[in-house]
Every structure is written in structure tokens, then in C-alpha cells.
Design goal:
Helix content is about 25%, strand content about 10%. It is built from six helices and six strands; from the N terminus they run αβββαβαββααα. Strands 1-2-3-4 form a four-stranded mixed sheet.
Length: about 200
């Protein structure tokens, strides 16, 4: 059994950081993900806390921070805990938080001018990996919920490590010799079809 699977199946784990602060990681399910308690992301996070958060991210694959009240600057600072940030995120075809090009607004709400206040691309509703095809794909993505419906609108996550580790050994060996070729025009064609736009020429 892999490290990812072992840790994800454990019960809640409390860790004491090198500076004495404590955090608890509570697994979300049988395959990956954990809820984090004991850290306030609206303040500067200590180096010792960062070390434990990075370790937990490598173990669980996804971290959930409930009951946080964050400003855009807090979101950017939080993401920098896990690596560099792409500016502007996903190019200029998305609505960004004013003054924060790395933060995309995802919303289906219309403003007073009857225009969407955020991006709600149907293409993003399919299974995908954020930043796929980038020369330097991001280590992580972050979602911060400001307003959510009482039902529906769920975001699902899949564990690629578990999917790979669950394959027969012969299949893993075969895949380890292969390389993927990324086609931006093909992806754009699929996305245009998803939202009903005429396909773009490249």
C-alpha cells in the first residue's frame, strides 16, 4: 500500500509544529484529502506551520480549511506557501479580482448591467487538471467559496496517485515508458464546443 493510501486512511492526526503551534489533520475519506484545523490563514503563517502544511499536502493531496475569512491578499499569501503563482492566472480571458491577476472570479451571477460578474465556462465543468499544458504547471490550485448554493454546484476531485497505483504492475510499467503530447488547439476546440462558440483558428 502506498504512502498516500496509508495516511489517507488514518484517523485524525494532531501535529505539533517546531514552534509549538498545533494543527489537526482530519482525513476526508478513504483515498485522499484532509480538513485542517488550528491554522488561521488570515495572518502570517509561521515557517514551522508552512513545513507541516506542505508535508500534509504531499501526503493527503488536497487540504480543506473551513471557517476562514480571507481577503484577496490573504488568498495570494496562502497560495505562496505552496510555491510560485501564475500571473495572470489562465490568461486574460477570465474575470479577475481587481488588482489581483492571479485570482479568477468563478460565478454564474449577473451584475446590474446584466453581464456575468465572473467566469462560468462550461468547459471547466468537465474533468480537468488546472494548468495542464503550461510549461511550468502549478503545484496546487485554490478555491475560496464566498457564496455557495444550498444544493448543487459541487466540485469533485480525483486522486491521480491512487488511480495509477491501482493499475496492474504491467500496465504501470507500460505507461512509464510513454510521453503525452499536449495540444492547445485541440483543447480550445473542445472548450469552444462546450460553450457553443465557433471554433477558433490557430
Amino acid at each position: 500500500m502506498s504512502t498516500h493510501m496509508v495516511y489517507a486512511q488514518r484517523g485524525a492526526t494532531q501535529v505539533t509544529c517546531a514552534d509549538g503551534r498545533r494543527m489537526t489533520f482530519e482525513p476526508l475519506g478513504a483515498s485522499f484529502g484532509a480538513t485542517v484545523h488550528g491554522v488561521d490563514l488570515s495572518r502570517e503563517v509561521s515557517d514551522a506551520e508552512v513545513a507541516e502544511l506542505r508535508r500534509a499536502f504531499n501526503i493527503y493531496g488536497a487540504l480543506r480549511f473551513p471557517d476562514q475569512r480571507l481577503e484577496p491578499a490573504d488568498e495570494v499569501r496562502t497560495m505562496r506557501l505552496f510555491g510560485g503563482i501564475a500571473d495572470p492566472a489562465h490568461g486574460s480571458n477570465y474575470n479577475h479580482v481587481p488588482g489581483y491577476p492571479s485570482l479568477i472570479i468563478l460565478s454564474n451571477i449577473l451584475g446590474d448591467d446584466n453581464q456575468p460578474i465572473g467566469s462560468a465556462s462550461k468547459g471547466g465543468m468537465e474533468w480537468h487538471t488546472d494548468g495542464s499544458g503550461w510549461r511550468r504547471p502549478p503545484i496546487a490550485s485554490c478555491l475560496y467559496a464566498v457564496e455557495v448554493p444550498s444544493t448543487g454546484g459541487e466540485t469533485y476531485f480525483a486522486n491521480g496517485y491512487l488511480a495509477y497505483e491501482s493499475l496492474p504492475e504491467a500496465e504501470r510499467d507500460r505507461l512509464s515508458t510513454m510521453k503525452a503530447h499536449y495540444s492547445w488547439p485541440t483543447l480550445r476546440k473542445w472548450l469552444d464546443e462546450a460553450v457553443g462558440r465557433p471554433p477558433q483558428e490557430f
